[in-house]
Amino acid sequence: MDQIAVALGGWESQICVRSSDGTVLEERRCQTSLLGAYLSARPQSRVVVETCSEAFGVADAALEVGHEVRVVPATLVRSLGVGARRTKTDRRDARALSEVSCRIELPSVHIPSAPSRERKALCSMRDALVRARTQVSNGVRGWLRTQGVRLRSGSVDTLPARVRAQVPTVPSYVTRQLDTIDALTRSLAAADHDVRCAAKADPTCRRLMSVPGVGANTALRFVAHATRPGAFRVRTRSKRIWGSPLASARAPRSSSGPASRRRARRRSGIRWCRPRGPRAAVGARTRCTIGPARCRSAGASVWRPSRWRASWPASSTRCGAMGPATSQRRGAPR
After folding, report:
1. CA triplet 328, 331, 334: central angle to 5 degrees?
2. Quick one: average pLDDT of 304-310?
3. CA distance 80 to 50
4. Burial (CB count within 10 angstroms: exposed 0-12, middle 13-18, buried 19+), residue 187
C-alpha cells in the first residue's frame, strides 16, 4: 500500500507518495481545493496529514474514495522528524511523514463527523459574537467612567438605550459603538434561535435537556464533542469534557500551592465546555427541588460557602458523568 503524505497549506499543499518499501514515487504541489480530485484518481493508499484547519475536510474526501486516513496529532509530529534542525518546509514535512508512515503504524486523532463539526462551528461562531459584544461594551463602560457617568444596572442588551437616556450628548465615536452593540445583540438572538432549533432537532440533546439546569447550549456542546456516548463507559472519562478536579494531582510537585491547584482545575477539560458544568450544577441546585438525588447532590455541593473554589469542579464532573448516562437512556424524553 502506498503512503501519501500531505503537508497541508491554505492555498497549496505538498504531496509525497512512497511505496511500502520507502521508495519515493511522486512529489508534487497541488492546490488544496483540488486534493479531493487528486486522491480520487489514486489507487487505495494510506493518506497521512497533520492536524490543522483543512485536515478533517481532506480526511473526509480521502475516506469517500476508499483510502485509509491518519490525522497525526500536531504534538507528535516534532518527534517524527517534522521541522528537524529548525528547518521546516512543506517538502521536508511531507517527506518525513511519508517515511515514518512506511516504518510504523502512526496514531490518528478522532475524526469527528460532519454534523459534529457543524455543531462546533455553530457554537464557536456564537462565542465569537459574545466576545465581540463584551469587548465593545467594555469600551463604552470605560468611556462612561472617564465622563463620571454611572448608569443604572441592567443587562448588556439594554446598555445602548441606557446610555442614550442618561447621557445628554453622545459623541459620534460612541454612537458607532452603541450601534454595533445593537447589531451584535440582534445577531446573538438569531444565533441563540439556531442553537435551540439544532438542540430540539436532536433526540440526544432533548434527553440531556431533561436534566435540570441543562439548556440547549450546554446540551449541543456536549453532543458535539461526545459524538459516541457508548465510548463513555467509565465515569472518569467524561471528566475530560467538563474538567476534572483531579487535574491538580497531575500538576508538577513544584506547583502544588492552592492557587496552582485552582488554575489546574480551571484549565482542565475542553475549553468551550469548562463553564457549562458549573452552570448546570447551579441550575440543578436552584431548580431541582424534587427528582433524582444525584441531581440535587451535584448542585448542592456548589453552594458550600467554605468550599466554593474546590467544589465547583467536582460539581461539573458530576454533571459531566450524568451526561453520557442521560444520552444513552432509552425511551422518550421527559
Report:
1. 95
2. 43
3. 11
4. middle
Do 285 and 302 touch, CB atoms closer than 8 A? yes
Domain edges within the chain: 2-103, 114-201, 226-327
Element housing 27 (H / E): strand 24-31
Q: Output the CA angle 197-203-207, nearest 5 degrees.
A: 105
Distance from the Cα of residue 93 to its chain's centroid: 27
Helix axes 216-225, 308-327, angle to 10 degrees: 70
Choice among 44-48, 71-75, 166-170 with the minimum mean pLDDT:
71-75
Phi, psi (degrees; rounded to nearest 5) at 2: -75, 155
User: What pLDDT score does 285 carry?
Assistant: 54
pLDDT band, very low/low/confident/very high, at 225 (cuts 50, 70, 90): confident
* Residues sharing a CB contact under 8 Å with residue 61, sequence separation 6 or more, in sequence order: 35, 36, 39, 40
Angle in degrees, CA 28, 30, 33, rounded to 5? 160
Instruction: Name the nearest CA neighbour of 19 among 35, 34, 4.
Output: 4
Is the model's pLDDT at 245 over the cut of 50? no
The C-alpha angle 16, 17, 23, rounded to 5 degrees, equals 110
Pairing of β 45-50 and β 24-31: unpaired
Residue 100's pLDDT band, with cuts at 50, 70 and 90, is confident
**Cβ-Cβ contacts under 8 Å for 49 (sequence gap 6 or more):** 5, 6, 8, 55, 58, 59, 69, 70, 71, 72, 97
Question: How much is the pLDDT for 254?
Answer: 47
User: pTM for the whole thing?
Assistant: 0.70
| Four-residue CA torsion sign, 47, 50, 117, 129 | negative
Domain covering 2-103 assigned CATH 3.30.420.40 in the classification: yes
Residue type (1 letter), 125: M
Rg, C-alpha atoms of the chain: 25
Q: Does 81 have pLDDT greater than 90?
A: no
| pLDDT value at residue 191 | 95
Question: Which residue intervals of 11-166 are DSSP H helices?
Answer: 35-40, 55-64, 90-103, 114-146, 159-166
Q: Which grid coordinates belong to 330? A: 432509552
